[in-house]
Amino acid sequence: MFVSLEFWLFVAVTLLLYYLIPGKWQNLLLLVASYLIYAYLEPGFVLLLAAMTLFNFWIARFIQSNAPHHRRYFWAAVIVNVGVLALFKYGLGIPELVNPLLNKLGLPNEVLTVNLLLPLGLSFYSFRALAYVFDINNQLIKPENSLVDFGLYIAFFPQIVAGPIVRPQPFITALKNRRSLTQERLVDGITFIFMGFFYKVAIADPLFTTLQSSATNIGTLSSADAWSALILYTVRIYADFAGYSLLAIGVSVWFGLPVVENFRQPYFSRTVSIFWDRWHISLSTWIRDYTFYPTSRFLLRRLGNQWARTIQVIALIISMTISGMWHGTGWTFVVWGALHGVYLSLERLFFPKVRVKPKKVTWRFWVQGALGMTVTLIAVSAAWVFFRADTLSDAFIFFERLFSSNPFDTINALWWIKVLVPIALLLIIDLPQLLTDNALVLWRLRSIWRIALCTIMLLGIFIFGSQTHAPFIYSGF
What we know:
Elements lengths: L4 H16 L5 H16 L4 H14 L10 H35 L17 H16 L9 H9 L12 H8 L7 H34 L6 H32 L17 H7 L2 H23 L4 H20 L3 H20 L12 H26 L3 H11 L10 H24 L10 H18 L13
Helix pairs in contact: 1-2, 2-6, 3-4, 3-5, 3-6, 4-5, 8-9, 8-16, 8-17, 9-14, 9-15, 9-16, 11-12, 12-13, 13-14
C-alpha cells in the first residue's frame, strides 16, 4: 500500500481536502477515505469491517458498570471479537495444526480441510476493538457517542493493515478537535516517511530476493549460507515492519492524529524483556495490559501471593503464546511465542535485577551490557527461525544446517559484503537514534551532519532499492 504512486496521490488529495473543509467534516472525510482504501485493497471484506464496527459500537453501551448484566455483554463482546478473529485466522491453520496429529494416529490427513481467506488487517482492527471493550469494562473510558469517530478509530487507513495498535482514549479524544497542518507536523511526517522508505526500499526489499532461495532449499544450505540467512532475516523482519510503522506514523502525523512509537532500536536490548519494550511496542503493551496483567491478577486471587513467582511464569508463557498465535497459524508460531515466554520467565526467575541500571556506571556495567546484548540477539534470532519456517521440521532442519560444517571454510569476501551492508544501512538510522534517544534525530543534528546523513540515505534508496516491491511481512497477520 505505502509503496505505490497511486496511494501517495490519494493521500495528497485527501490531505488537501482534509484541511480545506470545515473541521466538523474532517472525521467523516477520513472515514470515507479509509473505507475507499479498504474496499480497493480488500473488497470482499468491507462488510465484515463495517459489521464489527457496528457491533462494538452498539454493545459498548451495555458494558458500562451501571448497565444491567454488563458483565455478560462484556464477555459477549470478547467472544465475538476473538471468535471472528479465530474463525478466519485459524480456519486457515486448523488443518496445519491437526492433520499431523491425525496422521500419527493413522487417520487420513485430509479429514479436516477449511477454505477461508484472511481479511486484510483483521488481527489489528480486532485488537483495536478489544482494547475499546476492555477500557470501557475497566471504566477507563466511556462509550463513544459518534459512530463516525468510533468507525474512524477502527478503520483509520494508514494503520488498519498492520498497525500500530493505537489505544482508543487518545485517538478518539483527538478526533473531537479540529486539526490543522503546522510546519512541525509537516516536517515530522516527512521525516518519519523518509526513514520508513529507507528501511523498506533500501534494506528490507533487497533482502527479500536474497532470502528466497534459502526458504525453498533448506535441506541443501551450506553452513555459511544458513548463517547468512539467519542474520539477514533478523535484519529484514525488523527493517520491513519498522519501515511500515514509520510510514503509517508519518501519514498519521500529517492528519494530526496521535501515534505510538512502535520500534525503538530493539536489537540493542540487554535483555529479552527490554527487547519487548522496544519491539512492536503497541502489541507488546497490548499483550501486557490485556493478557498478562489480567491473567496474573486472576491467578493471584485464587492462589495467593505465596505463588507470585510461579504465577508470573505462567502468565508470561500464556501471554507470549497468545502473542505467537496472534501472529500466525501453525505450530511454528506457537513455539515462537512460547519460546519468548520461556526467555522472559528465565529472566524473571534468575536475573530479576538485570534491568536495573546502577547509580554509578562502571566498566563492568558496559561489559555486562555488551554480553547481555549479544545473548539477547542470539536468542531472538534463534526464535525467528520458527517464526519464518513453514513447519517445525523445516525449523529443525535449518538448525541442523547451521552446524552441519565449519562455516568459516566457505565464507568469502562476497559473504561478508552480503551480510555487513544491510547491517551498516540499518545502523545509519538506529545508531544516532540510540545515542540521542530521539526518533527524530535527523532534524536535531547540525546542518552539515543532517545533509550528510540524508544524502547517504537517499543514495541507499537509489542504489539498493529493489525493483520488486515485496509485500509487508506483517500485512499477512
